């Protein structure tokens, strides 16, 4: 007899809604059904957008102190239910319980930073008398909310990436409709529960669960949606960009992130940082380390250390605190990673460790001698695989690091400040981490990339800039009459 699973409802304009048609939410570790969510229709999305249109008026008129209160109260709610949130992140996604707990802490921080930034949405006075003949004019500009924001979020950070959309939207006085990943929708629903408990007015927030093919295009193309904030893959991002029309687009589209290790670096620390940066969240991380370029004089030493540390990485039950890495999000994704690795091997690559699959689990894998015409060398693997390359010098490392269609973040390990500044100047990325791997981020920094890695920036202050527009106010004062 099949065990009945208690389903979750989606939030539409302040009301919790269920539907007969549902989506099963699976634990990728053992494929068990942990819950269900409604499979929304296009009509559901249209209704949510209509509700959000009314919500924009409510949100824009909400005093800043009230936005601050709601955001901080929602953060308090998440903090008081931390174990519940972490358990759900670990169950519906790929993260270990330790990684999930860290994500909950980051979500709390994201909401608190959003509350702080709400009080800093400032304008400036404008010296209109900079032009001759305009001496009697004064004025300023201020930033106003743009209206309805449509957000589409991925599976790999199912709570904090949703908070990165909702927090800035509420801080800046917008209404927002979120379509979370169908693979990990429950974390987003739990975050909505926090905002309802915090007293967020109805119609300001909707969380719509369903298939992207059924409801995603409605959200992206609707003329009332004035901004689309998307985190996901490049092909989907390109499709959204073509569909969206004349509206603001903010996209973080992943990467094939490089690290450069020079001979003057602390090699053991560099290896540890890159192992963590490559295999955390089973490599399903947009800023995870995928390519490492090592100066040839220290290549063997670094390779030996990196492989040894990779072999020590504990793969297994993600619910156990001692586990370093759990499964990928699905068997399908694990098979894809396996296929990409096998393609590289057929073309001449060598597996130093790993390269095995068990269901949705794929072992941490290190490759050398990977030819440039492999998919894994050019595209984002989004799995636990790293490519090691020898380079003659920094110049070669920079040129090869830049030789992909992505540019989100990079890392460089060196004790030479001139080398660090040279890399900072020439690497085509949105962020360079010096003596850290590319897998470093705090939630208050601008986050985004160049080339195929996206458009615009996340990070609360910078997302608020994207979610608002400047309005100029000018006074033509009458001249004094004596």
Automatic annotation (TrEMBL):
Record family assignment: Belongs to the aldehyde dehydrogenase family.
Matching InterPro entries: Ald_DH/histidinol_DH (IPR016161), Ald_DH_C (IPR016163), Ald_DH_N (IPR016162), Aldehyde_DH_dom (IPR015590), ALDH-related_metabolic_enz (IPR051020)
Keywords attached to this entry: Oxidoreductase
Gene3D superfamilies xref list: Aldehyde Dehydrogenase, Chain A, domain 1, Aldehyde Dehydrogenase, Chain A, domain 2
Annotated protein name in UniProt: Aldehyde dehydrogenase family protein
Domain Aldehyde dehydrogenase: residue ranges: 20-473
